[in-house]
What we know:
The chain is α+β, with helices and mostly antiparallel strands. It has a single domain (11-145), classed as Nuclear Transport Factor 2, Chain: A (Roll), CATH 3.10.450. The protein is 30% helix and 36% strand. The chain has helices at residues 11-31, 34-40, 62-74, 151-157, and strands at residues 50-52, 59-60, 78-91, 94-106, 118-132, 135-145. The chain has a 6-stranded mixed β-sheet with strand order 2-1-6-5-4-3. The longest helix is centred in the first third of the chain and has 21 residues, at 11-31.
Amino acid sequence: xxxxxxxxxxxxxxxxxxxxxxxxxxxxxxxxxxxxLTGLWLPGExxxxxxxxxxxxxxxxxxxxxxxxxxxxxxxxxxxxFLTDVGVSMTGDTALVTCTxxxxxxxxxxxxxxxxxxxxxxxxxxNVFRRTPDGWKLWSHHGSPVLAETGEEEDEESPS
Length: 160
């Protein structure tokens, strides 16, 4: 007897493939591999890609998006992403990945040091992927900084 299925049998394989594509995106950034990163985005301009880096305006078009990553990589000595709260949802040939990017990064080294000062940042991200004959490709990335309040700020606003 066949049991009813909520999703097609290959949905789990699709989700795993999207998760691998999402991981590849962050690993390419960590390595500063612009060639690999370029291959992860949708090719051509049939579907205009877009990107919003935290604090940046919307970037549209493959050239503008890839130039932004080249600029970031050229000015970032070290970057590492620890992804948490990763969720994947799909419909047809489109997949949506949401996650929290726990970022550790460093700029150019100071004199006498091998690495510049490290800075931590939390960013919530949405990555949209499209299925292509060459696998899942990024269509859009949107990152927004997490502006967490501390207990000190709340205490300062409380009446005495």
